[in-house]
Specification:
Radius of gyration: 23 Å
Strand content: 25-35%
Number of helices: 14
Helix content: 25-40%
CATH superfamily of the largest domain: NAD(P)-binding Rossmann-like Domain
Strand order of the largest sheet: 11-10-9-8-12-13-15-19
Distance between the termini: 37 Å
Length: 465
Amino acid sequence: MPYYRKRSHYPFPPEEVFAWHLRPGAFQRLVPPWANVRVLEKEGGIHEGGRVVLGIRQGPTDMKWEVRHTAFEENRLFRDEQESGPFEKWSHTHRFLPADDGGCLVEDEVEWAAPLGAAGRLFAEGFIDRELERLFQFRHSRLGNDLTLHGRYEGPPLCVVITGASGLIGTALKDFLTSGGHEVRTLSRRGAGDSTGGPAWDPLADTIDPSPFEGADAVVHLAGESLAALRWSEEKKKRILQSRRQGTELISRALSKIPRGPKLLISASAVGYYGSRGNEIVTEESSAGQGYLAMVCREWEGATGPARKAGIRVVKLRTGFVVSPLGPGLGKMLPPFKAGLGGRIGAGRQYMSWIDLDDQVGLIHHALTRPGVSGPLNATAPNPVPNSRFTDALGRVLNRPTVVPLPAVAVKGLLGEMGSELLLKGARVIPQKALDTGYEFLFSDLEDSLRFQLGRMERPSDPRD
């Protein structure tokens, strides 16, 4: 029977590493972003008898994978075994072994058998073995990242309210915080398709249930109308602005009226605040730019005024291009690039101020736990790159050519103002405040980030070596 094992060392005691796996959000943090997996049912946690049913989509095919936990030893191991699903057999043992330096050796051991008998063994075993290596490389890296970020904070657990908790950043943040032992409450936009199940608020109707704010430490406000559209109509632009300005003002006013409410508001914004700046180096001290998105960001940030006037610490999180295949940016780029049809956009000189999703979450955690962080905070990696360099890096990671450019005239013709604002303009944004306040980036190199998020962490050997 095929057998796979991976072991990694972490500079944290086994009890701490094991406790992380017990908490809500831990499983979700270990699901690779390229895997189309969702939890359909879950009961009993990782203790013996616990059960999980996963929904897995492979191309046009949907399947269920049911596993049951069959062994549990506190701070030492737990095991899950397949009851039904894609394998002939699956038994996964998670071990937590004390290291000589006081740290922990995490060992994943999998015994498995491919489906379809002899045909599966002949044609599928090599593929499955490679996918297991890809999976556990990611899992062990993500575990180390999260333990490192949580290890930077030594205070008591926080209670954090999140709006936009069903979005890319909100989902990752919620799972990160709960797996670290913090409490998360969510607000659900009435009628907006938000599935978080939290108390409701409606920015356009100017109504909000303030109960989640009572006794909370902080609010992370991420909600807003999606920028994605084939083209921006005047109605779409109106909704983009209104959702940000009115939603942020509603949150700010509600917080200003709660005596025992949060003392920190982290409110989303974007590097669009700076407009198109060419090769100029831009920091939090730089002025606002011109254009529609710059105007939206100014209004968005200005709507935090009621909270700031009430003495609440306000952080304006100016986010760049978030590197994750689950995001609307990279997610839309992948199909043409995988097909070998990717290339630079326009002249390729416009800067892309990017950030890995794990660092995006890490910077929010940094702002939550560092009282000295306030005002604008650039959520970007220290090394922004021109679009042409981003294109080259993505091509190397995917092992595909990048010789099919998308001319500026085509962008403007197909996407109008949206294409011009989002794809043809850019700013060279540096996260100066993050660096000055001691944040250490997990990913400063774009190619490292892409390889991590896409599960392609093995760099090809250099023929010159």
